[in-house]
Amino acid sequence: MLKIDNLVAGYGKVKVLHGISIHVPKGKTVALIGSNGAGKTTTLRALSGMLKPESGSILLGGKNITGLTSHDITRLGLAHSPEGRRVFSTLPVMDNLLLGAFPRLTGMRAKGDVDGDINRMFELFPRLKERKAQLAGTLSGGEQQMLAMARALMLNPDVLLLDEPSMGLSPRLVEEIFHTIERLKKANITMLLVEQFAAAALDVSDFGYVMENGHIRTSGEASALQNDPAVKAAYLGGGH
Amino acid sequence: MQILMQLIVSGISVGMIYGVIAFGYQLSFATSKTLNFGQGEALMLGALVGLTTVNFLIGNALGNFWAYVLMLPVVLAFGALQGSVVEWLGVRPAMRAKSEAGWIMATIALGIIFKNLAENIWGRDALKFPSPLPEASLSFGGIRIQPMEIVVVIGAIVLMVAVELFNRYSIYGKAVVATSNDRDAAGLMGINTNRIITFSYALSSMSAAFAGVLVAPVTLTGASMGAVLGLKAFAVAIIGGLSSGLGVVIGGLILGITETLTGYYISTGYKDVPGLLLLLIVLSLKPSGLFGKAAIKKV
User: Fold this and answer.
1) pTM tops 0.90, yes or no
2) Is position A82 within any domain?
3) Which residue of A has its CA nearest to B167?
4) Whole-angstrom Cα distance, residue B280 to residue B275?
């Protein structure tokens, strides 16, 4: 569904990604793990067009999306729940969700049942339903994370990119977020998940890629990576 | 007391004009963090295009009132087009080059070009704009109000309410607000933020052109009418805050009323001083404006 081949990207003269290749098969969840500064967030930014790749190719469902603007990439079906949540703080929860469906509401993507999808989001995140008229900026961190995920899902995406959904949340909320990811996986949503909680991420994923200094160091089935001594030592210690 | 009330009433209609122009500054600033320093010239062009249109329609045997009504859509469309041109020629290249100040010079330069253009087309003299309503003042308990002054206040409110309703209830309006909130995140929603910024410039100049044809029948029309209005409205936008719609209305009223009061009680020569003093005070005490929210810059 999403095929990244030899992707090179960076900020100005500083190269961050030195030719990485990742494959996210349809209906599967892929975890991208690695330490701080390895280039995980930069990878997602390059995929969704927030950052122009220097070279390499990105195929979404067979369509080449390399170098397109982020609005065009979104319209083609790639949703990105960005690092830091980036909800529209002066707008109510409901409007944030509607904006997630912007291409569907403006004829740039198959419309489907937008109202029904909003109700499904409220089922998935009951807290958002209670707060639907509240301004997104007044939500707690956990609620904002749920909103960011729900907003991305409102695209009816072919692929969902999740950047650090657990960042800055209490352990109980982290667990809740991972439960939600499991439910999305059961619903056959294709996901690329960037996480610092490597063990938890591999638990919910089919495949994993380990990133180090802008390179993919190793990859494979999630269960195999969990048992890889080198990966274990570097990323899976510390109780997670 | 009656004189005071009279001065306040006159100040209100002037203030609403400042408010509408300042509102235009806000529209483009919200989405692009840039604004058109040729806003006064957008107003002037709107008024002059309006004048030509009205004269043409009156020449075709329409009364002043219907000529004015039919002129409005022409001027609004012209304003939108003019704003798009400013964004396209002046702002977009500077933003693409990530220039911090390029758009300032570019919009000032475009303003000067527009002014020269207007001088060559319409001449340098002030022209009389046919009033759509009787010019005789109405009297309310001894306070005299020109019918056109009432139209100014109503027109200004209608414009701002219309934009607010559009932002609140249409998906495109929500896209504008989303772009103001977080441009990158708006792009991730599939919103073409370049187009939203062009649109907000179109709307911004449209507001100025509308203010131009509102004020023209009360004052006079001419190539130089925009400069002072644009500058004062900029002061209003700073006083009221570049992010608050209510702020520009209140800021406009404060400036309009202090001007008429100073003009009467002190000297018309000092009419412009209190507003600019107020600007300096606000800038030093509350730089985000009386009603502005302080920007929190995350590091």
Assistant:
1) yes
2) no
3) A91
4) 9
